[in-house]
Structures are given as C-alpha cells and as structure tokens.
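Supplementary notes for students who missed Thursday's class. We covered one full example, reproduced here. Read the sequence, then the structure, then the short commentary at the end.
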Amino acid sequence: MDASFWHTKWERAEIGFHKETFDLHLQQQWNRLGLGKSQRVFVPLCGKSLDMLWLAGEGHPVTGVELSPLAVEAFFEENNLLPRRYQQGSFNVWEADEIRIMNGNIFDLEARHIADCAGVYERASLIALPPTMREEYVRHLSMILPPVILILLVTMEYDQTVRSGPPFSVSEEEVMSLYNPAFKIEKLYTHDALSKESPFRAQGLRELHEKGYLLSRRST
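Structure (token representation):
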C-alpha cells in the first residue's frame, strides 16, 4: 500500500472511515492520560477528524500529520477555520488557533516536529496500515516520540477472511508484540462495535470489537 492509495481514496471521497461526530470513547477515556490542559497532543494520520476539535476544546494544542492535502484543506474549510500556511522541511503546515496539521508523509516526520507533545491520540493510523508496514510504523514512532509520552491507542478486531481492510484488524497479541519492547501497555476497554446499521455488517461481518489501550514509555 503506497501513498497513491490514500490520495485516490480522498479524491474519490471514499472515506467511510471518517466519523461525523466526536469519538465517544475518546471522551470517556482521555482523562486516563492525566495530561494538563495546555499540553500538546499528537494525532498521526489525522485525516479531517473532528476529534482534533474536541481535544483543542479540552485545552490541548494539537499537532496532526496527514498525507492528503484534500483532507487537510477540508478540515479547515468545513470547520470555518482560516489557517496560515508555511513550509517546514518536506511538510506544508496548516495552522489555525490551537490546531496545526503537517501535510506530508509520516515517515518523514522527525523528533523535532513533535518534541513539544505530551500525549498521542492514535485511532486511525495503525489500523490503516497493512501488516507489512505496521512494524516499520511503530519503530518509527518509537524513535521520534519524546522520552516521556502517553498514548491512547484504539484498534479494531474482526475476521479478516470475511473483509480484507482497510481499516485492518489488529489483534491484542499484535499490539503487545509491536509495542511491548518500548512501552508499558494497559488495556482500557473492549467495545462491541458492530451496530445494526454498520456497513461492516453489510459486508458480512458478524463480530467487530474496538479495543482501547493506554501506552507509556518504559524507563531505560
């Protein structure tokens, strides 16, 4: 899966993964991180997620990174935000109020870009990547995230023989394997996410679980 895949998704408006409301579990679980109101939060592969507005409303400056310029433009336009734009290395940065989105490839992101972040809201990136890319992604994040960091990680689990993804199924065992070397992992919740109206049910799924985890750096 390369960059052109996601550019095409946004060009064709095939964005069923986008939620038109704030995520309920974000609202319920976020205080588990215990961050101060002014501490900055990093949102990888943010798309045009409204959750960035919720985080900003809670007093957190937000830094997102997103590959698609269409997604970034749509976020600011649809939320009536007038951004200032500037170039920072390979990233085209859009910024308005407390929200900054870096338009570019997350694998080009460096530690200096997110050095001021104290937390991460990770709902859309790990499950957007195929198995062959997930290890590289987690290794990259582990290298660039600040030494002290807390992560709210959200995954999905379902029968991948019925539906191929994305979003992909990421098992609890894989989460442990990917993150355990560098992070302590606490499972926060398991939620039955297959509602009667879910498009996943129409695709043949009979079970779909969303799981949330709290990750913190292991001391070296």
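Commentary. The two ends are 34 Å apart (CA to CA). The chain has a mean pLDDT of 90. If anything here is unclear, bring it to office hours.
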